[in-house]
């Protein structure tokens, strides 16, 4: 864990060297660049917290394939694009926060996102907000 340490720069793209990593908390720093897709090589990761940084680019779709990922917080960054369609495919996923980014388009309607508490998704800005409100009102 290296949260709230005023770290700067990009995350090194060398996660394939840490396949047993279970928790990565780099929240509340000044990290930039895109989130490396190699994070998905950490097949035992349970918690990924990258909130409150300066990340840009799209959410790597490989994150959705992490089999033990239970908690994902990518909020308060500048992530763009759409939420990947396979997002939420991880069977262990319990909580997701992607709020306060620059994401567009609808949330995926398949996978685990249908069964987890949608309040944990947070309030997504821009055009996603309207869709999110619609999903909350029609979900049983």
TrEMBL record:
Location within or outside the cell: Cell membrane
UniProtKB keywords: Cell membrane, Glycoprotein, Leucine-rich repeat, Membrane, Receptor, Repeat, Signal, Transmembrane, Transmembrane helix
Cellular component GO terms held in the UniProt record: plasma membrane
Pfam families, A to Z: LRR_1, LRR_8
Entry-linked InterPro entries: Leu-rich_rpt, LRR_dom_sf
Family membership: Belongs to the RLP family.
Descriptive protein name: Uncharacterized protein
Organism, as annotated: Coptis chinensis
Membrane topology: Single-pass type I membrane protein
């Amino acid at each position: 864990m290296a949260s709230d340490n005023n770290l700067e720069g990009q995350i090194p793209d060398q996660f394939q060297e840490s396949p047993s990593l279970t928790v990565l908390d780099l929240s509340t720093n000044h990290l930039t660049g895109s989130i490396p897709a190699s994070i998905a090589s950490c097949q035992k990761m349970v918690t990924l917290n990258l909130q409150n940084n300066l990340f840009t680019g799209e959410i790597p779709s490989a994150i959705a394939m992490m089999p033990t990922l239970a908690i994902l917080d990518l909020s308060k960054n500048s992530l763009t694009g759409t939420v990947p369609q396979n997002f939420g495919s991880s069977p262990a996923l319990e909580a997701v926060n992607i709020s306060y980014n620059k994401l567009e388009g609808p949330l995926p309607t398949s996978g685990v996102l249908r069964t987890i508490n949608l309040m944990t998704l947070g309030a997504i800005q821009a055009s996603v907000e309207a869709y999110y409100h619609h999903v909350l009102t029609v979900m049983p």
